[in-house]
Structure prediction request, 256 residues.
Amino acid sequence: MTQQALISVRNVSKAFSVEGRLVQAVDNVSLQAREREFVALIGPSGCGKSTLLNLIAGLMEPDQGEIALRGDRQTERLGRIGYMPQRDGLLPWRRLLENVTLGPEVMRRDLPAVREQALALLPLFGLQGFERSYPHELSGGMRQRAALLRTLLCEQEVVLLDEPFGALDALTRRTMRDWLLGIWERFQRTMLLVTHDVDEALLLSDRIYVLTPRPGRVALEIDVPLPRPRHEGLLNDPLFASSRESILTALREHDG
Ligand SMILES: Nc1ncnc2c1ncn2[C@@H]1O[C@H](COP(=O)(O)OP(=O)(O)O)[C@@H](O)[C@H]1O
Ligand SMILES: [Mg+2]
Prediction:
C-alpha cells in the first residue's frame, strides 16, 4: 500500500463482560481505509461489526491493538469521524431541517450558513419540501437519507455507516444503493460501510473485509475488481460472480 491509510486498525481486540462472563467480540482485527476509498465490512450478525465501528469512531477503546487516523495514534478520533449508527437517531421532536443541522449546531458552527447549505442539499437527498416534517411523517428511506445528510453536514473526512439500509425493503434498498454511490462520488469522503448484503458490498466498494462469526476476525480481504462507475448490469459480469463466490465461500467456511 503506497498511499498512507486514512484509518488504520491494527491487531485490535475487544471483549465485553456480560453477566460475569467475558465475551470476545472482536479478535485481532487489522484493516485500513485510504483517502476517498469505499470500504465494506461484511459478516454475520453478532460478529462484532458495530463494535468495530464504535472503536473506530472513538466511542470505546480497544483492549489490545491500536487505531490510527492518518498514521497518528494519539489523535482524538471522537468528533473527527462521522458516524451513522444502525438506528437513524433522528430526534422525534425536531423537524427535518433542525434534525439535519444538529451536528454543526452542537459543534457551534455558523448555524444560518449551515441551514442554507442543508436547504441547498435537500433536493439531492430527495427531501425537498419536507424541511418542516417530523421524522414520523417520513418514509424509512427518507429518514435514512436525512440521517446521512446530518452526518455529511458535520464535514468529517471519514464516514462510518452501520447497515444503513438494513431496515428497508429490497426495492428501496436498490434505489438507496445507487443514490449512495452518487453521494460518495460527489462528496469525496472515505466511507466505511457495514452490511451483510454481498451484492451491496460488491457494487459499492473498492475493498471488502469479510469477518468470521464471533469473535470477529478477518477471514478474507478482497480488492473489488469491478470498474467504475458501477451499475446494476455488473451483477451479470463474470468478475462479479467470481468475487461473490469467494466472499460466500469465506462466509460459509467459518459458519458454525
Ligand atoms: N456494550 C456491550 N456490552 C456487552 N456486550 C456487547 C456490547 N456491545 C456488543 N456486545 C456483544 O458483542 C458481540 C458483537 O456485537 P456487535 O458488535 O453489535 O455485532 P454486529 O454489529 O456484528 O451484529 C455480541 O455478542 C454483542 O452481544
Ligand atoms: Mg451491528
